[in-house]
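task queued by scheduler; priority normal; single chain, no ligands, no partner chains; default sampling; output format set to structure tokens
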Amino acid sequence: MKKYTSKECLDALKLAAKELPDNFTTFEYSMWASKNNKPNLDAVKTRLGASSFVEALKKAGIETFHKNVEGYSQEEILEALERAKKEFNSHLPRWRYDAWAKKNNLPSSMSLTRKLNSSWEELFPIRKKPTKLKRYSTDDCKKALVAAIEHFDHARFTMAQYNSWAVEHNNPAHTIQLY
């Protein structure tokens, strides 16, 4: 494994910030670093003496990685909430909202709950009558997993990352009913 200098690690973070989307994740950085022969996240954190990805970004002079709660006005938060309620018109799980918000460059669920001083369940109450879940066959689930593995270039991915991908590609979430 190549040993990187502090300057190479800082330069890699700065280049990633230019090439990746504004709210890029540690997973997206890791994929980018692997494809571009740049230091991986652990190497960057170790070389820069950072305990987290956000701390490493700060050391690279990248001010804001994620737009924080204070970065949104009350009006922007309320607009995002209303837009989500109109678009989904039902109870909205946090993970699904976050996937949608990221795609539409809107505040995260955490930003909404903190700024509005509310729980997620208060913002999007669960309906009393459950909706009928779509049933997927075993083959549907296998096809979705194969497609996800190909999408993530055979790298590891979390349930949250899979669920975000599944929402965008109309595939079953990690919690499914098989028949």
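post-processing summary
- The chain has three domains: 6-59, 69-123, 132-179.
- The two ends are 47 Å apart (CA to CA).
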